[in-house]
Write a sequence for this structure.
């Protein structure tokens, strides 16, 4: 079997690293004697001209260094201040600076140069996400001919948004050097083909193949999943968090997100406020736990979101709290997985309302964590990739606070029969399409590409 080489922005560090992607790729990496290459996490003053090796995992791991300048241009700059907002429909938040795209090209080129001496002719390379769009292009320049696939974890923008890039054609040039492009949802594949049609040269062939900028490649949809069996077990055996039980017997509604403007957290707070204003019978009956650790605080667009959400939560609590009841609890810390699994299981409602999201794994974790005899209700934004396969959730438009408030009220009143019927359909999908299915399906397609 040919060796699998995975390249991602972040290298999973620590002994026996875990996390969905690691679990998904571990078997394929181990059985092929595979290698994972990524950034070690902190910029350094004088980077090494070689990869650094990290023993302690079931596969080989190697990291590359970045200078502060490269980190700012490639990671904080082009990746997270241009591509992230672009792919999440927020071109208004893009900060285009000429040095940033240069830095992005430079880092992709540097990773390619560091990787090439360690490659074998029959390797298969799997590149993860938007930080590394240009990697195949750089590897091909250095003569690498083995199959290279890309998987995009976030949405692909449509033509109107793509046109906001300084040089949209370059993105499609980069992508044309892959053999397989994987997307989370049908929506992303259509956006990709439509954007390429308007901004580059594309010709559809048969069997998910196409000609992009004169090169043949395959593009298809591979919705990512979670390690479902492990998460079900985690939730079943989770510690009972008595401290989270409410004094008034209120049902818990839970939201779990990185504190990111794409996740629609202020929108759900406003909908909750509307619900409270119009349904006094629900006062003291529902308590909303939002867990949202801050991320990317060095990126300008992230600096307002914490203040805005804290302000909203404070206002809502001020308006409705009673001596025995706090309507919203807002936690800014990451939570250990087993505690998180237990909280999902206790929550009568899982609230997942992004304005744009590649997939959204919280939706799948919430479903996996439920007690099948008395499951809770998933409320899911139609803008999450997950909505394409999780139609038995209450699908909502997060921009419409009335619709969202109505869905919460409906979930609170839903009969146990209807909850079980919806949950069993959702669980079937989350079990069948877990993260192992995702990686196996993608890697089969890469082998055939
Ligand atoms: P993210 O934007 O990070 O991922 P998501 O899919 O929701 O979004 O995954 C977040 C993960 O972090 C979940 O496993 C969740 O449990 C965990 N998490 C979040 N807050 C936490 C907390 N406070 N404590 C502990 N764990 C927490 C990107 C894309 C998504 C896509 C994934 C995978 O943006 O759309 O689903 O990659 O492809």
């Amino acid at each position: 079997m040919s060796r699998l080489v995975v390249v991602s922005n972040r290298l999973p560090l620590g002994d026996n690293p875990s996390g969905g992607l690691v679990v998904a790729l571990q078997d394929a990496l181990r059985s092929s004697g595979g290698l994972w290459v990524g950034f070690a996490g902190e910029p350094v003053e004088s980077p090494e001209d070689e990869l650094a090796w990290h023993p302690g995992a079931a596969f080989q791991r190697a990291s590359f260094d970045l200078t502060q300048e490269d980190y700012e241009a490639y990671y904080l700059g082009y990746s997270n201040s241009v591509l992230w907002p672009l792919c999440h429909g927020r071109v208004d938040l893009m900060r285009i600076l000429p040095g940033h795209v240069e830095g992005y090209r430079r880092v992709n080129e540097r990773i390619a140069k560091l990787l090439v001496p360690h490659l074998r002719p029959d390797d298969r390379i799997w590149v993860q996400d938007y930080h590394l769009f240009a990697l195949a292009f750089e590897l091909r320049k250095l003569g690498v001919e083995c199959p290279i696939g890309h998987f995009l974890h976030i949405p692909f923008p449509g033509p109107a948004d793509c046109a906001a890039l300084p040089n949209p054609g370059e993105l499609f040039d980069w992508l044309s050097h892959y053999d397989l492009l994987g997307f989370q949802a049908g929506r992303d594949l259509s956006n990709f083909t439509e954007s390429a049609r308007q901004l580059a040269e594309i010709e559809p062939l048969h069997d998910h193949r196409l000609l992009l900028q004169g090169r043949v490649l395959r593009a298809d949809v591979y919705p990512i999943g979670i390690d479902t069996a492990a998460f079900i077990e985690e939730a079943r055996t989770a510690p009972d968090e008595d401290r989270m039980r409410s004094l008034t017997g209120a049902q818990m509604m839970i939201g779990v997100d990185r504190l990111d403007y794409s996740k629609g957290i202020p929108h759900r707070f406003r909908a909750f406020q509307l619900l409270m204003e119009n349904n006094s019978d629900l006062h003291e009956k529902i308590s909303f736990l939002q867990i949202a650790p801050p991320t990317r605080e060095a990126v300008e667009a992230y600096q307002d979101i914490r203040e805005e959400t804290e302000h909203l939560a404070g206002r809502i609590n001020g308006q409705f709290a009673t001596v025995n009841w706090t309507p919203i609890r807002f936690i800014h810390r990451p939570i250990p997985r087993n505690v998180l699994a237990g909280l999902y299981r206790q929550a009568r409602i899982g609230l997942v309302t992004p304005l744009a999201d590649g997939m959204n794994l919280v939706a799948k974790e919430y479903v996996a964590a439920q007690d099948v005899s008395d499951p809770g209700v998933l409320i899911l934004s139609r803008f999450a990739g997950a909505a394409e396969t999780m139609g038995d959730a209450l699908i909502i438009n997060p921009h419409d606070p009335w619709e969202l408030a109505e869905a919460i009220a409906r979930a609170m009143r839903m009969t146990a029969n209807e909850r079980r019927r919806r949950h069993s359909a959702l669980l079937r999908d989350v079990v069948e399409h877990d993260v192992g299915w995702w990686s196996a399906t993608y890697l089969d397609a890469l082998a055939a590409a």
Observations:
- The CA atoms of residues 184 and 222 lie 5 Å apart.
- The mean pLDDT is 95.
